[in-house]
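Exam revision sheet. Question 4 asks you to relate a sequence to its structure. Input first:
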Amino acid sequence: MSPATFSGLDLLTTAVVVLDDSLRLVHMNPAAEILFALSRRNLRGQAFPELFVDGAAFADKLAAAQRDTRGFVDPDLVLSRPGHEPVHLNCVATPIDAGEAALLIEFRHIEQQLRIEREALRITQHEANRELIRNLAHEIKNPLGGLRGSAQLLERELERPELREYTQVIIKEADRLQALMDRLLTPNRPPHDGTVNIHEVCERVRSLILAEFPSGIRIERDYDASLPELRGDREQLIQAVLNIVRNAAQALLANTQGRVPSGGGVIELRTRVARQVTLAKTRHKLALELQVTDNGPGIEPSIRDRIFYPLVSGREGGSGLGLTLAQAFVQYHRGVIEVESEPGRTSFRIVLPLP
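Answer key, structure tokens:
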């Protein structure tokens, strides 16, 4: 394969890598350099699969393709470099015979496609959950009123004052359930549109959390001062962020299995501008990205995929409504919430479109 042919590959927007019969790098076009954050100038002659932490299986497939002179297509290849996030790819490998070049590999990034599919699934699940919650809340609220009223009437008829302790238990528990049902129905209120500064939202949440948890937690801030204001409901956004940060604080102080750092818990609020973002199948030139990251024990794998479902909680005594409400409020603002979690690091990422 001549240098002129390599120059032709450099014009492609598709990432292309050319390897020799020992799977060593012969050429990498600029699109591949960007995709993998690598420099072809420094890597020529190196074994390409060895650049990835999970490259052994990939190397076996490439070696088989080169040995059998038969190409392959892998529509869901995942490669990750040390210290980098995994990259989801569609890979097409083709054996060639052009001098030292033995394999030509094309890579297409499918992360955006996967993200859109995950978002669509979350929206569908959210709508189903919201309908279930609304029906359940209405069914519970109706008998609660009668239960509380009957307890009040019974209390008036009791001659022994000490027996009123029991009716008070009924009334207080009915009030508690009534408040829970009101919270379940709250997301159905449409947002009040106005101008919102996300940093004012974050500072409000920070002050509330520090007042609620005066010791054992440090909240760090990394704000992008160039962020413009967005349109939305300030109170709903405060509640959404507050629910996420409060969950992080409670997880840090729970000291689950001793995995909370001895130096104390740290929560970071980080804002950035995101460009060319697809939200709800709509492309936005600019979006706001807010990350809430903590160094706590992480979300248990058994509930990680269901963390936004109603009544699902990783904390004993938790209602399982905080993240459900946060997701509802963010989706009312045409945004999304994503979460990544492992022991020692949990990060919630809120993305909201900017005008």
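Marking note for examiners. Residues 111-157 form the longest helix (47 residues).
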